[in-house]
Design a protein that fits this description.
Layout lengths: L7 H10 L5 E4 L2 E9 L6 E6 L6 E10 L9 E7 L3 H16 L13
Antiparallel strand pairs: 1-2, 2-3, 3-4, 4-5
Length: 113
């Protein structure tokens, strides 16, 4: 039994709604994370859900790559019980949507497409 069994259906619902792909392992250990595309051509964001410890877990949002090199500034985290996971993921998605519409520190590069 995976430590994520109780929360996997909810995580999978979000991944499907966001048209992403769920990654279930990192460095040989169970993990749950997925990527959200930002503005073309290069922006990518990630939501990572920590393994539940008892009834508690954390959700993290990160900028993986941005067009204006602000990855280090764009981070968020939420902690709560497994019953609050839906709201925590929703908050992470809303936060990432805000990052997507931020005022750029430098202009976006031209699209290669």
């Amino acid at each position: 039994m995976s430590t994520y069994d109780a929360v996997d259906p909810l995580i999978e619902k979000w991944v499907s709604a966001l048209e992403s792909k769920l990654f279930t392992e990192w460095a040989g250990e169970p993990a749950r994370f997925f990527y959200i595309h930002g503005d073309p051509p290069f922006e990518v964001f990630m939501i990572n859900i920590s393994p539940p410890v008892g009834d508690l877990l954390q959700v993290f949002a990160y900028a993986v790559d941005t067009n204006d090199d602000t990855e280090e500034e764009l981070k968020g985290d939420w902690s709560g019980s497994t019953s609050e996971l839906d709201g925590m993921i929703q908050s992470a998605v809303i936060t990432i949507d805000g990052w997507k519409s931020r005022i750029r520190k430098k202009p976006d590069p031209p699209s290669p497409w």
